[in-house]
Amino acid sequence: MPRLHRTSFRGRSAGYTLVELMVALVISLLVLMAAVSFYLMSRSSYSTIDDNASLEERGNFALSTLMRLTRQAAYVPTGSNGGSMPISTQMISGLDGCSTPSITVPAATGIETLSCGNGTAINNSDALMLRFYGMGQPGDAKTPDGSVVDCSGLGVAGATSVDEASAQRGLSTLYIGNGANGKPSLMCMYRPRDVNGQEIKDTYVMQELVPGVEAMKVLYGVSTNGDDVPDKFVTAGSVSSTDWPNVFAIKIALVVRADNASADAGAPASIQMFGPLYPGNGATYTPTVETGSARKLYYATVQIRNYQSCGDPSCS
After folding, report:
1. Which of 7, 109, 133, 237 is most buried (most C-beta within 10 Å)?
2. Coil, strand or helix: which one is 160?
3. Is residue 224 in a domain?
4. 116: domain range?
5. Is residue 17 part of a domain?
6. What is the pLDDT of residues 166-186, one digit of tens each?
7. Is residue 27 one of the residues assigned to a domain?
8. Does residue 186 form part of some domain?
9. What do you get for the CA distance between the two ends of the chain, in Å?
10. R_g of the chain computed on alpha carbons
11. What is the domain count for the chain?
């Protein structure tokens, strides 16, 4: 009887060799590195776009607010004789390099006076105080109609009489201070309101208006020959008490800083606040903190009408 021969075949064990595992691991790491790089690049691009949008929004809002408040100083209500109300005190004043400004009202004059506190002004920034007449409801001058507002956005009521008009003007003071996050911001000082919406005289509160504004400089255009056209632009320290009624234009320059560091920011460079033709005090600003953050300069020239020429010899 023939003998049967059985041949057995041992199959290969299922799995990957060490070389195959290493190749797969390297390929996986390359894919992961590409994905992480794409994510980081996308995040950086998003941060840059967000910072640029924030810069534009903050800068435009801060500048437009300052321009609106400055133009309000040009408004003069009608007097009892049907003409413009007589004005005997200036509507605009300012201080150079002002730290923590405060307002006092001397009993002798009854007119607000701006002064600076101790310490160094943030980035040598200036302070600007603006006074302006309000507008009341028809038949009720004490109730503001909302057409004239201070830097807080609250309405300013109209004058009840010519004699009280100067003391009843609205007031806004703008300066650079540290905001809620400890970083420079455009600050607003104004009078609070009572339960009836009336301004509380001789009381002032401060409010953060626009975060990220780290420097503000102001120049005043003074007419020296009586033609109502600015002949020179100077700092507040160079404006004499007799020159303030002859200020017919204001140049405002703001530097706004982004919240985050940006790879596109580059090394900080000196910023010419009023262009290369102005070499005077405060002409340049060089960032020294958070130098990796993007910055942008905003500036404007605001023309002011002849609001302080009342046509009465008693005003001169």
Report:
1. 133
2. coil
3. yes
4. 46-315
5. no
6. 778 889 999 999 999 999 999
7. no
8. yes
9. 144
10. 32
11. 1
